[in-house]
Design goal:
TIM Barrel, alpha/beta, globular, 318 residues, binds NADPH dihydro-nicotinamide-adenine-dinucleotide phosphate
């Protein structure tokens, strides 16, 4: 396993990491999740991602329990704050919710601190200054070591850097954006000035576009698949026109290329994300151990993605 510095920071994260959204709790019980976490750790993964909103905190509880099997200084743990409940002050990036939400997450994780703490979305109802000050305060209290954003615009992140610099506050270290062959703009274009100017790291999510890039949806929605189980997500992908024939045609071509390279479409899609030097870590999602085993081999497949192969991929997905 290769380890990358998270942006300009001293922290090293495995280039492949393990996420828990829609898996820890809904599809993987504690024993199954523990098996996945052990397999991941034994194969070099050191970074595990969760959020207060995942299965209403159940994901954090399960992840925290599984990670008790390891030394705390051998793993990097992240959680994300924004959606903590239905009440007015359980949501958003106010100082109150950020601090209370973080403390609640730590209780569920049964940890004294998380390594990475993300503002899960931008909050247009809270002044950015309040959020940056609260994150600085959380870090100075030792509840988290690094803070970052998730799905903020480049402009919002730039403002956070500016405010932090002006008031000598701790600036963000990383962003958690969506990145895959079907969602490229933000990581490949919008954030480029931020990598160069601030050394922003990225922990990217949905490398398989929720499974679409495996080709499993090319002939309809398989029973018990993620888009069968989670109807709002299916609607969202439909609204992005990602469950339509032109996309399936591209995926068919990618599947043929994967066969030529002697790998699976999932491995090809994940390896492609790993090729981007601005990606610090690719967060894998796996609904079972077999998927995790398959996806972890993407690190080996990366070596097969020569310039020529990358150009062929570009020809398909551009
Ligand atoms: P993916 O795009 O990789 O989707 C994972 C899903 O795809 C699996 O649960 C499974 O679904 C299917 N799948 C995975 N591997 C295979 C395979 N080899 N063959 C067939 N199907 C496969 O990643 P996620 O969307 O799960 O995102 C990864 C992580 O990123 C999350 O767990 C979370 O930690 C984080 N995240 C962060 C977000 C944010 O806003 N910051 C948003 C979303 C995710 P199925 O049940 O159909 O088999």
């Amino acid at each position: 396993m290769k380890y990358n510095h998270l942006g300009r920071s001293g922290l090293q994260v495995s280039e492949l990491s393990l996420g828990t959204w829609l898996t820890f709790g809904p599809t993987l019980n504690f024993a199954q999740a523990r098996e996945c976490v052990h397999f991941a750790f034994d194969n070099g993964i050191n970074f595990f991602d969760t959020a207060e909103v995942y299965s209403n905190g159940v994901s954090e509880s399960i992840l925290g329990k599984t990670l008790k099997d390891f030394n705390r200084d051998e793993v990097v743990v992240s959680t994300k704050i924004y959606w903590g409940g239905d009440k007015p002050n359980q949501i958003g990036l106010s100082r109150k919710h950020l601090i209370e939400g973080t403390k609640n997450s730590l209780k569920r994780l049964k940890m004294d601190y998380v390594d990475l703490l993300f503002c899960h979305r931008p909050d247009k109802h809270t002044p950015l200054e309040e959020t940056v000050l609260a994150m600085d305060q959380i870090l100075r209290q030792g509840l988290a070591f690094y803070w970052g954003t998730s799905e903020w615009s480049a402009e919002q992140i730039e403002q956070a850097f500016k405010f932090a610099k002006e008031y000598h506050l701790i600036a963000p270290t990383m962003e958690q954006p969506e990145y895959n062959m079907l969602a490229r703009k933000r990581v490949e274009k919008e954030y480029v000035p931020l990598y160069q100017k601030h050394g922003l790291g990225t922990t990217i999510w949905s490398p398989l576009a929720a499974g679409i890039l495996t080709g499993k949806y090319n002939k309809g929605i398989p029973q018990k698949s993620r888009l069968d189980r989670v109807s709002w997500l299916k609607k969202e992908y439909e609204s992005y026109h990602l469950l339509e024939q032109p996309v399936f045609d591209k995926i068919d071509k990618l599947m043929r290329l994967a066969k030529e390279l002697d790998c699976s479409p999932a491995q090809l899609a994940i390896a492609w994300c790993l090729k981007n030097p601005n990606v610090s870590t690719v967060i894998l999602g796996a609904s079972n151990l077999d998927q995790l085993k398959e996806n972890l081999k993407a690190a080996e497949v990366k070596e097969r993605l020569t310039d020529n192969v990358m150009a062929r991929i570009e020809g398909i997905i551009a």
